[in-house]
Amino acid sequence: MAVTNNNHHADEAYTVSDIQVLGGMEAVRRRPGMYIGSTDIHGLHHLVYEIVDNSVDEFMAGFGDTIDINIDKDGWVSVADNGRGIPAEIHPATGLSAIETVLTTLHAGGKFGGKAYTVSGGLHGVGASVVNALSITFKVEVRRDGKVYTQTYARGVRTSDLKAVKDPNASSDTTGTKVYFLPDKQVFGEINYDFNTLSQRFREMAYLNKDLRIRFSSDWKLEQGAETKMAEYHFEGGISQFVTDLNTDRQTLNTEPIHIEKQVNSTIVEAAFQYNDTFNELVFSFANCINTIDGGSHLTGFRSALTRVLNDYGRKAKLLKDNDPNLAGEDTREGLTAVVSVKLKDPQFEGQTKTRLGNPEIRTQTETIVADAFMTYLDEHPREARLIMEKCVTAQRAREAARKARDLIIRKNAMEGGALPGKLADCSDRDPKNCELYLVEGDSAGGTAKMGRDRHYQAILPLRGKILNVEKARADKMLAHEEIRAIIVAVGAGLDEEFNLEKLRYHRIIIMTDADVDGSHIRTLLLTFFFRHMRPLVDQGHLLIAQPPLYRVAAGKDEHWAYSDLEREGYVQQLQGRKGMTIQRYKGLGEMNAEQLWETTMNPENRTLLKVSVDDAAEADRMFTLLMGDLVEPRRDFIQTNALDVKNLDV
Question: How far is 554 from 584, CA to CA, in rounded Å?
Answer without folding.
Answer: 9
